[in-house]
Amino acid sequence: MLGSECCAIGSAIGSPIQFATARPMLISLNRKKFEELIPRVATSEQYKYTWGKLPDFLRRLLISLVGLVVALLMNLVLGEDLWALTFTVGLASGFYWLWSPVYWASLKNFECRRYPYSGLWRGEVLDVFVTEELIGKEETVNKLGELVIVENRERRLNLEIGDEVGFVTEIQVPLKRDHRIIRSGDRAEMVVMSDVPDLSRIGKVSDIYLPDYSLWVSAYPYLRRDTFVEVSKQMGRRQEGSRREGGREGGREGRKRRSLNERRFRDEFRDEFRDER
Length: 277
What we know:
Layout lengths: L7 E4 L5 E2 L7 E4 L1 H7 L6 H8 L2 H25 L4 H12 L1 H18 L3 E25 L5 E16 L4 E8 L12 E8 L6 E5 L2 E3 L4 E3 L7 H23 L3 H23 L4
Parallel strand pairs: 1-6
Antiparallel strand pairs: 2-8, 3-4, 4-5, 4-7, 5-6, 7-8, 9-10
Helix pairs in contact: 2-5, 3-4, 3-5, 6-7
C-alpha cells in the first residue's frame, strides 16, 4: 500500500504518474481489448470533435484552395510528363478540408496506442470545482482610438479523482451544463496506459466515465465509449455479486469472506482481459 507521502498527482495528458503496483481496482487489459477501446482509425465522435467550429473549417478550406493553386502551377511548370504527381497533389489538397480531421484524430489515437500496456481503473471523485482560464487575447480599438487588449476567458471544470491507496490525478475540461450534477464520492472509471507491464508508471489516461450518471468528462473522446461502457457494466455486475456473497456473514468471518470474494473477483476479471502470453 502507498502512504500519503507517496501520493502522486498528474494531469490527464501530463507527465507520467507513479503509484503502487498492488492496486485494488486496476485490472490489466490485453492488447486486443485495448485496441477495441482505442481504434487505429478515428471514430465518428473523434471526427466530430476534430472537425471543430466554423473558423477551423474555413482554415482547412483555405489550405485546400492553396494546395489546388500549387497543383495547377506544378502542372504548368512540369507539363504532362508528371501529370500523375500533380493530379495526386491536387486531389489530396482539394479534399484536405474533408480528410484532415480523420488524420489528426488518428494521430491522437496513435499517441495512446504506442503504449504497450494498459489497464481499467476504478476510483472516485475526490474534488470538483470551477475556475476561469485565459484562453487567448485580442487587440482591438475603442471609440477613442485607443488600443485595447481583450482577454478571452473560459469557465473550466476541474475534476480530481483518486482511489484508496493514494493514486490521484486531475483533469480540466470546458464546463458544460451536465457537469453540475458531479459530486465528491461519485464513482469514476478510465483506462490508464503505461510502458511497463505492472502498470507501476502511468504515462497517459483516457477520458473519465462516471457510471452513476452515465456521464463522460473529457477534453477529447479517446475511447470507444459504447465498448467501454459494456466492460464497465460487466465489471460492476461481477463486483456486486462478490460483495453480496460476502455480505451474508457478519463480523470478522464476514470481512474475511468479503476480502476473499473481492480478490477472487479481481483475479477472474483480470484473467479475462489480461495479456495472452
